[in-house]
Amino acid sequence: MSVIAFIGLGAMGGPMAANLIRDGNTVRGFDLSKEARDAGAANGIEIHDTAAAAVRGSDVVITMLPNGAILDDLMLSKDGLLSSIKTGAVLIDSSSIDVATSKKLHAAAKSGGLHCLDAPVSGGIAGAKAGSLTFMVGGSSETLDLARPVLESMGHTIIHVGGPGSGQAAKTCNQMLFGTTLTAVSEMFVLATALGLDHETLWNIVTQSTGDCRAIRNFCPVPGVVLNSAADKEFSPGFAAPLMLKDLNLALTAADAVGQRLALTEAATNAYSTLVDEYGALDCSAVIKTMSAQLETVK
Ligand code: NAD
User: Fold this and answer.
1) Are 122 and 8 within one domain?
2) Which residue has the least CA distance to atom 40 on ligand 1?
3) How many angstroms separate the alpha carbon of residue 224 from the centre of ligand 1?
4) How far is the CA of 233 from the centre of ligand 1 (A)?
5) What pLDDT is stored for residue 279 in this prediction?
6) Contact 53/47 with Cβ under 8 angstroms?
7) Are both 289 and 249 inside the same structural domain?
8) Which residues pair with residue 93 across a beta bridge?
9) Which of the following is catalytic: 78, 171, 246, 289?
10) Which of 110, 139, 161 is the last residue of a domain?
C-alpha cells in the first residue's frame, strides 16, 4: 500500500484515484476545480489546498492533466512541483501530452532523483471507472516494476513501450489512427447515403468485411444503427471532439519534429477543427457533420 498524490481529478483522474483507494492506498489529491475536489473528497481522497502540499512526502505522484503546457507549467517552471516531491518517489504522468514535454519531464525528474514514467491511457471514462484502462508506458523497466501495482489498480493492460516519451509516442500513433479511421468511416456513410444504401445493412456488411474497425463499431456516426451510440443521442459525448482534435494535433506536432508529412492526419485534423469551431464539444463521431451537407439524416 502506498501514499499516492493525484494531481488532476477530472473526468479521468477522479475515477482513477477512486480505484487506488478501493485497493487500500492513501490518496492525497489536488485539482484547480472545486467541483473535482468535492467529488474527490466524496470518494475518500484527502484533498489538499495546493498541489505541493499533496505531493510532499508521497511515495508516488500521478498527474492526469489536460495538456503538456499545463504539465510543464505545474512541474517544470521555476518553483515547480518537482522540487516538492521526495527523492526516490515515482512520478507517473498519465496525461496525453506531446512527446517533447514528456522527455523534458523525464530528464528533470532524473536530475531531481525521482523515478519517472510516461503512462498515457486508452479506454476512456468508462475504462477509468471500471479500472480497465490500457497503459502505454515509457521509461525504464525497473521503474515500471516499482509502479506496476499502482497501474494495476487502474488498468487491466500495461504495455511497456520503451524509453522516456515512448508511451506518449504510442498513444499519439493510436489516436491518429483512430481519428483518421473515424473520419473515413464518416465519409463512407456520406457516399453510402448518396448511393441510396441502407445504413444498417452497410454496417452489417462492413463489420464482417475488410473495413471492420472499432471506429464503426463503437462510434458509428449515423443514428439508428448501433443502439445507444452517440449518434442516437444527438452526439452527446462519449469521447469529445476537442480531445480528438488535441490528439490529432499532437500527432502533427510529433511528425513535424521528425520531418514527416501526415496527409491523412492533416485532413482529419481540418475536419475536427471545423467540427469544434462550429459545434463545440460534441462526440467525436459528429465529424460526419463537417462532410454531410447532403446527409440530412445526421443534420
Ligand atoms: P478533465 O478536463 O476532465 O480533467 C483535467 C483536470 O485537470 C480538471 O479537473 C482540471 O481542473 C485539472 N487541472 C487543470 N490544470 C490543473 C493544475 N494546474 N493543477 C491541478 N489540476 C489542474 O480531462 P480528462 O478527460 O480527465 O482528461 C485528462 C487527460 O487524460 C487529458 O490529457 C486527456 O487527453 C487524457 N485522456 C482523456 C480521455 C477521455 O476519454 N476523457 C481518454 C484518454 C486520455
Assistant:
1) yes
2) 124
3) 32
4) 24
5) 96
6) no
7) yes
8) 63, 118
9) 171
10) 161
Question: CATH no. for residue 103?
Answer: 3.40.50.720
Cβ neighbours of residue 192 under 8 Å, at least 6 residues apart? Answer: 199, 202
Q: How many domains does the chain have?
A: 2
| pLDDT of the residue at 1 | 74
Catalytic site includes residue 171: yes
Q: What is the mean pLDDT of each run of 10 residues along the chain (299 residues)?
A: 94 98 97 98 97 97 97 92 96 97 98 97 96 98 98 98 98 98 98 96 98 97 96 95 98 97 98 97 97 58
Q: With contact defined as beta carbons under 8 Å apart, do 99 and 172 qualify?
A: yes
49 and 84, same domain (yes or no): yes
Q: Are 149 and 270 contained in the same domain? A: no
Ligand 1 pocket, mutate which of 32, 71, 154, 236 (most atoms under 8 A from CB): 32
Nearest CA to ligand 1 atom 12: 8
Domain of residue 94, residue span: 3-161
3-state secondary structure of 16: helix
pTM of the model: 0.94
Residue among 30, 35, 48, 65 to mutate when testing ligand 1 (max atoms within 8 A of CB): 65
Report CA 252 to chain centroid distance, whole Å.
16
**207 shares a domain with 125:** no
pLDDT reported for residue 299: 45
* pLDDT for res 78: 83
Give CA 207 to chain center in angstroms: 26
The pLDDT assigned to 101 comes to 97
- Given 130, 161, 192, the domain boundary residue is 161
Which CATH number is 282's domain given? 1.10.1040.10
Residue 147: exposure state from Cβ atoms within 10 A (0-12, 13-18, ≥19): buried
Distance in Å, CA 194 to ligand 1 centroid = 39
For residues 133 and 223, membership in a common domain is answered with no
Residues 151 and 175 in one domain: no
Q: Do 224 and 247 fall into the same domain?
A: yes
Ligand 1: centre distance to CA 65 (Å): 4
Pocket of ligand 1 (CB under 6 A): 7-13, 30-33, 36, 51, 64-66, 70, 74, 95-96, 121, 124-125, 239, 243
Q: How far apart are the first and last CA of the chain?
A: 51
